[in-house]
User: Fold this.
Amino acid sequence: MTIPSPYLLEALIIRKVFDDFVALDDVSLKLARGSFHALLGENGAGKSTLVKCIMGYYHPDGGNILLDNKEVSINNPRDAHNLGIGMVYQHFTLIPNMTVAENLILARPHLPAMIDWKSELAELETRMATMPFKVPLQSNINTLSAGEKQKVEIIKQLLLDSRLLILDEPTSVLTPNEADEVLGQIKGMVDDNGLSVLIITHKFREVTGFADEVTVLRRGKYVGSCKVAGTETKTMAAMMMGSEVIAEPLARAETKQNETLLEIDQLSAESSSGETAIESLSLNVRAGEIVGIAGVSGNGQRELVEVLAGQRDIANGSIRLHGETFDATRRQARLHNLHCLPEEPLKNACVPNMSVAENMAFNNFDIPPYALKGLLINRGRIRERARTLITQFKVRTETEDTRIGALSGGNVQRAVLARELSGDIDVLVVANPVFGLDFKAVEEIHNRIMAARNNGTAVLLVSEDLDELLELSDCIHVISGGKLVYQTTPSEADRSVIGQHMAGH
Ligand SMILES: Nc1ncnc2c1ncn2[C@@H]1O[C@H](COP(=O)(O)OP(=O)(O)OP(=O)(O)O)[C@@H](O)[C@H]1O
Ligand SMILES: [Mg+2]
Assistant:
């Protein structure tokens, strides 16, 4: 009689090499049946690569994958789905310009040649009642915020009845409350329905709150695995980072009553679908001050940042920088020394097929010393500056000529932060700046934002993470339905009151 293996999935001695870069150096992971297993590691450790090998999205250069103790050959994500493995990727995979319902229905395997949309929709609505959270079925994907899109991605996999659900940083764009709700529901499915989960996360509170076991990778190598119960967070952190030291938080320096650098006056703007996204919003940010904007994603914060970045028209109202009307062109942004980091930077602030160096030079490639006489671009200087930024911001990339789209999620974020957070900045607008960063990089970036403030930068910090806002801001506004509905300071803030305003009460 054979004893059944306690493992649902075993990925054994997996090797993956890109050109001559070893992303996975004989890594193994064993996932017990019915467990909630977290995969940890710093940015660029190889986590996404490992799960993409399991899904058949990448073909490993060595190693075996066993499911229920039997070796399986997974050549593409369809094979994985047929074996009951579903995955939510770090990047979005939804079809733009279609509704949420259409996306969910089209994701169903074995769709008939003729889709009876009416009955499919009715069935979808019935099944949605059993789902852990709601998504706006009739909305166009293009109009959704990052948080909403992420929820749709998770629902899409849950509807497929996978027995192993792989989640690559599913909560990066969710508020901590939303994350708890989503992970709590998924944990319920692990405990009650025998679902197994492999989750990649940078958040220890999610590991200690929900996971049973962890596996840790470092620089493409297997470090170890352990049960969460009985393991301290600092032990896991040490496994992830080795002996590297974590930066201490930078103190908030006293700054004087400084001049107002950014004035937003009665601003209105429309969403991509033509609805009012921001309505008569007024806000000032002074030099040496961080003004935080809290809100559930999808309440106008994305459009606000896009207006400031020159990516969305102003319907009404005005913006002034240094007291002058700002028309949101690149030239004016440079003149006023305004830097902007939108959400989803790979999509909104990068060209994935261009090199890291080129992406880092977007703000200044056409001015001296990076260009001479207009457009004679000095590639040597651009690459030299990129090398400096890569070192300062610890961007893990093979060279400055690597295509930015080949970097790990957290390293793309670092590269864009390096571009937007370096040098003297008068006005800084950042949306979810630590999205996808490992805990060490989070500290470093928070310190850089605080250092900019202490040096006199006016910072507008848009974040879905209340802890981040409470830690960094001098004053916090809540945005709801495109309007600022409440204002407080971190010292006076009451989380539940902020939460009520965020929820629109
Ligand atoms: N398609 C690719 N081509 C070349 N190199 C790649 C490719 N995909 C990943 N890499 C490299 O492999 C390494 C591991 O990347 P991976 O995306 O697995 O990291 P990760 O642990 O998921 O990090 P993060 O926390 O930042 O998401 C990185 O250094 C990355 O640059
Ligand atoms: Mg990753």
The radius of gyration is 23 Å. The mean pLDDT is 90.
